[in-house]
Amino acid sequence: MAKEQTDRTTLDLFADERRPGRPKTNPLSRDEQLRINKRNQLRRDRVNGLRRVELKLNEDAVNALNELATERNVSRSELIEEILLEQLAQNHALKMHQNKNS
């Protein structure tokens, strides 16, 4: 009987053949690996003083942020943080000025 390359029903004929693709080196399923990696990432962020904030923006705002982040060679997240900190500093300075004049 001839061995047909596309025939995968007779597994004994293909037992010694290496299949293409990445070998499985981790005993955990991909879902479990992703969960563990996410947990570790959140732990690293917490140690670095970072907190997660979810923000929904319209597409135009996201596109503008992406363009500006690319121009400044920073991530979109870093850009948003920078913009927020600048705005908070301005707001704080304005309040200080108002309190001084009161």
Automatic annotation (TrEMBL):
GO BP: regulation of DNA-templated transcription
Biased composition (Basic and acidic residues): 1-20
Gene3D superfamilies, sorted: Met repressor-like (1.10.1220.10)
GO molecular function annotation: sequence-specific DNA binding
Every Ribbon-helix-helix protein CopG domain range: 51-90
SUPFAM superfamilies reported for this sequence: Ribbon-helix-helix
Region (Disordered): 1-29
Superkingdom as given in the UniProt entry: Bacteria
Stored NCBIfam families: PRK11675.1
Listed name of the protein: LexA regulated protein
Provenance organism: Proteus faecis
